[in-house]
Amino acid sequence: MSDTILEIKDLTVQFKSGKEYVQPVRGINFELKKGEILGVVGESGSGKSVTSLAIMGLLPDKTSEIVNGEVSFRGKDLTKLKEKEYRKIRGNDISMIFQEPMTSLNPVFTIGEQLSEPLRQHRKMSKNEIQSKIVSMLKQVGIPRAEQIINEYPHQLSGGMRQRVMISLALLCQPKLMIADEPTTALDVTIQAQILRLMKEIKNNHDMSLLFITHDLGVVAEMCDRVVVMYAGEIVELAEVNEMFDNPLHPYTKGLINSLPSKNTRKKRLYSIDGQVPKPNTVNKGCIFASRCPMSFAKCFEKTPPSFKKGDHMSKCWLQETAEGGRV
């Protein structure tokens, strides 16, 4: 049996914007192994969150659709499931920690009511067992006075506390796959370290796979086994985490790493990548990064680069054409 728990094949997502259609995610491919932590990095607007919503089946019905590709979870293509079938998987086998804790919790229900929902749907447990499970999970994520918190409403908690509630909500049913979209954004550095350590412990204890979406390359280096680098809706590089930091192949990845502050060197100004991420559908030919790339040449603006692969290291850049390795 394959040890791949999630496989994305040629996934393209389309949104309707007025009378036009845009594709914020185009033709992406990656897989996630059992027990693995796969990081997804890139600037805002690169398609990271749209990819996660496509996996969860939470794309807006009337304004978006998956126009091509597969999202295969444990051998089953999720894009072909009806909503009723998806609900049996969502929150049970696959869960997600959303980016915005302020808006992800329902303001009119208590914390306890919202945390009990996945257990009522997916587990046969008594009311007392559900409450005991909820209190135990809240304590695990570092929430004090958990017995009182379950009777309070989201507006009574700080942003960091709400984010920890979201993390406990995602972990309640001990899913096989958890998607974390910027899970520590609202937390201070000390609590962030605690939460990351907790997520890693739970992942190891339950052999859970984790798709970790973040802007923070420091977190990627600490948490992840492999890394997907996204830019303008496409995957431009995929590699084992140490390989990516030691030997980045794509100019965009190199720019991200160079923009990190160094504790060993004092600099007057941090490095930054010139320009901005292009809007979807505005680059019709050539490399999507060419206009911002300091190493671009004529071919970059004329032909779209294929995926070049060297071992398990993939890069979508014409500079790799003459390097050792080959096209995927």
Question: What this model shows, in words?
Answer:
The relative contact order is 0.13. It is globular and about 65 Å long. The chain contains twelve helices and 13 strands. It starts with a strand and ends with a strand. A nine-stranded mixed beta sheet has the order 6-7-8-3-9-10-12-11-13, with helices on both faces. The protein has a four-stranded antiparallel beta sheet with strand order 2-1-4-5. The model has no long low-confidence stretch (mean pLDDT 88). The chain folds into two domains: 4-93 and 175-269, P-loop containing nucleotide triphosphate hydrolases (Rossmann fold, 3-Layer(aba) Sandwich); 105-171, no CATH class. The protein is of the alpha/beta class and 328 residues long.
Give the second-level CATH assignment, the architecture of the largest domain.
3-Layer(aba) Sandwich
Number of helices: 12
Supply the helix-strand structural class: alpha/beta
Instruction: Give the CATH topology of the largest domain.
Output: Rossmann fold
How would you spell out the order of helices and strands? EEEHEEHEHHHHHEHEHEEHHHEEE
Share of residues in helices: 25-40%
- CATH class assignment of the largest domain: Alpha Beta
Query: What share of residues are in beta strands?
Result: 15-25%
Strand order within the widest beta sheet:
6-7-8-3-9-10-12-11-13
Mean pLDDT: 88
- Give the overall silhouette: globular
The CATH homologous superfamily of the largest domain corresponds to P-loop containing nucleotide triphosphate hydrolases
- How many structural units, i.e. domains? 2
